[in-house]
Amino acid sequence: MSYPLPWIGFIGYVLLLLFIDFFVLHKKNRPVSVRKAFYETLFFVVNAFLFAGVIYWAFSNNAVDNINNLSAGDAVVKYITGYLIELSLSVDNLFVIAIIFTSFKVPAQYQHRLLFLGILGAIIFRALLIGLGLVLINKIHGMSIIFGLFLLFTAFKMLKKEVEPNANTEPKGIMKYLRFSSVIDGGKFTTRVNGKRVFTALFGALVAIELTDLLFALDSIPAILAVTTDPFIVYSSNIFAIMGLRSLYFFLANMLQKFKYLKFSVFAILIFVSLKLMTTGYVDIPEWFSLMFIGLSLSIGILISLRASNEPTS
Q1: Looking at residues 228-247, what average pLDDT do you find?
Q2: Cα separation of 55 and 39, whole Å?
Q3: Model's pTM, two decimal places?
Q4: End-to-end distance of the chain based on CA atoms, in angstroms?
């Protein structure tokens, strides 16, 4: 049976938030101040938690196709847990975005526009990847173990990798096959160089952001499938997490290095989620424990990072 009303309401609300973000809060290309980014981050986080009320209503009134027979309370806990997982896994994404903007020398006044367009692409690509992930985990026996092993590999690879800003602006990967220039022509995506139409550095940065989101989605989607396979909860928690990523980036842009120990929190969360995926059907880990573990991991990472950044260097 199809239950379109919650989906229509969710998509409509997301489009409304995006309209407010782009045409009201950022109708002019201006750098985003830390103060403004803080209030915008708070705005999107509050909206994400308010949507938990919609989740409760939808599941208590049987307005969604409740394939897992969740109670309204359980659905809310799984939604919040999934949202926090997606938000925590986005921390690494913030560092990569900073590297992209540095590498392509994107002026501050154009950064929000690129991230806004990036979220539009993410809404489409995440839907496709979530659909694929749900099909795989429901149709192929043992797929949860494969997803768990993939997350385990990702966790150790992330912990080992040290990402440094790369000053080399030479096109790489897909950029090699595009007519690409390092020129930034007043916020345009194409320009003319020596009489030839080429893509600007802004377009290169946009492509890099979209590809980065696809790569991170390969980690985040299996992670939330460890919490629930309900499509409405998975997709809504994903979208609300990445919607707040832009304002969070501008809020933390000048403080990213202060949170260097957060990667250990993300590592711990990935390990926990991978083990939860691989033991599905054998061990029943309650959602309150998952939520507590994620919150505690993030809190410890933030506190240790802030304490280390305030210590005087010898």
Answers
A1: 88
A2: 25
A3: 0.75
A4: 66
Residue 230: DSSP 8-state: -
Name the residue with tokens 């390990």: 271
Tokens of 190: 């194409």
Q: pLDDT tens, 252-266?
A: 765 666 677 777 887
- Residue burial 244-273, b: 16+ Cβ < 10 Å; e: rest: bbbbbbbbbbeeeeebebbbebbbbbbbbb
Position 27 scores a pLDDT of 64
Q: With bands split at pLDDT 50, 70 and 90, how would you rate the model's confidence at 70?
A: very high
DSSP 31: P
Instruction: Spell out a b/e string for 220-235, using b for 16 or more CB atoms within 10 Å of the CB, else e.
Output: bbbbbbbbbbbbbbbb
Q: Which of 30-39, 46-55, 236-245, 283-292 has the highest mean pLDDT?
A: 46-55
State how far the Cα of 260 lies from the Cα of 279, in Å rounded to an integer: 31
Q: Residues 6 or more apart from 187 whose CB is under 8 A from it?
A: 29, 109, 110, 113, 202
Locate the domains of the chain by residue range. Answer: 4-309
Calculated CA dihedral for residues 71, 74, 80, 82, nearest 10 degrees: -100
118 token code pair: 């990036």
